[in-house]
Amino acid sequence: MNEKELVLEVSELTVNYGATSALKSVDLFAHKGEIVGLAGPNGAGKTTLLETIAGFLRQKEGDIRLFGTQINEFPVLKRRMMGVVLVPQERNNFPYMTVSENLDVGGIINCKDVNKRLIEEVYQLFPVLHTRANQLAGTMSGGEQRMLAIGIGLVSNASILLIDEPSTGLAPKMVTRLFETLGSIKELTGKTIVLSEQNIGVIDIADRVFGIEAGEVRFCEKTEDLDRDIIRDLYLGK
Ligand SMILES: Nc1ncnc2c1ncn2[C@@H]1O[C@H](COP(=O)(O)OP(=O)(O)OP(=O)(O)O)[C@@H](O)[C@H]1O
Ligand SMILES: [Mg+2]
């Protein structure tokens, strides 16, 4: 396996909502097995970027490449079949189905054996989902539902997981646990993860961080080279 294989390459991406420009010539890339953090304040364009990569929004200009193939005009389902999976911030489960039914649906395009194995892996990562397998998803706590959403993403057998602000609404202790789990997902599965986050703790698990503000990339740094003050300025203002 080539560690440096480029899974996702976004170049000069511009996305508008009517006359308003939400992304302005954004560049972003992710190598195989990397966790890429997408940091930025409210309204920076993080969700817009992830939704455009997954195909829910269309770019005005620019290019999106997956394993070198241009996917600009591919519909959501085709991108999904190629391994692009978005874990949205909200409305990310079927509330009137049980935890285990949600996981079955998440892996619906896999063959039965693969799905069984992936669900077992998810239960290992998030034991609470195993304990609560027969509980209706909508009755799980906020943190448990967040774990379920990530679990659904994992059973989908993605080659790249786009996770939109997984820590929102979680208690600090839960955030730490969630980040640890995402780190172990990377170690165990070698998945490529692009993670939008407002929680500064993301720099503890990300290999690289893109800082985005007002629709523009302000920096792209390897985490070890990152100046924490830059991140603080990005969130708190100078
Ligand atoms: N459907 C829409 N119509 C018009 N403007 C929109 C729409 N969706 C988002 N925007 C605007 O685009 C900009 C980027 O929004 P986006 O949701 O991508 O930001 P974000 O970085 O995900 O913010 P947050 O951290 O609050 O989730 C914001 O100014 C927002 O108001
Ligand atoms: Mg958002």
How would you describe what is shown here?
The chain is an alpha/beta fold. It has a domain at 1-82 and 196-238: P-loop containing nucleotide triphosphate hydrolases (Rossmann fold), CATH 3.40.50.300. Helices cover 35% and strands 27% of the residues. The protein is built from 8 helices and 10 strands. The protein has helices at residues 46-54, 76-81, 99-106, 112-125, 127-131, 142-155, 172-189, 228-236; strands spanning 6-17, 20-31, 35-39, 61-66, 69-70, 84-87, 160-164, 192-197, 208-213, 216-222. Strands 6-7-8-3-9-10 form a 6-stranded mixed beta sheet, sandwiched between helices. Strands 2-1-4-5 form a 4-stranded antiparallel beta sheet, with helices on one face. It is globular and about 45 Å long.
- Highest-level CATH class of the domain at 1-82 and 196-238: Alpha Beta
Distance between the termini: 42 Å
User: Radius of gyration from the CA trace?
Assistant: 17 Å
Low-confidence runs:
none
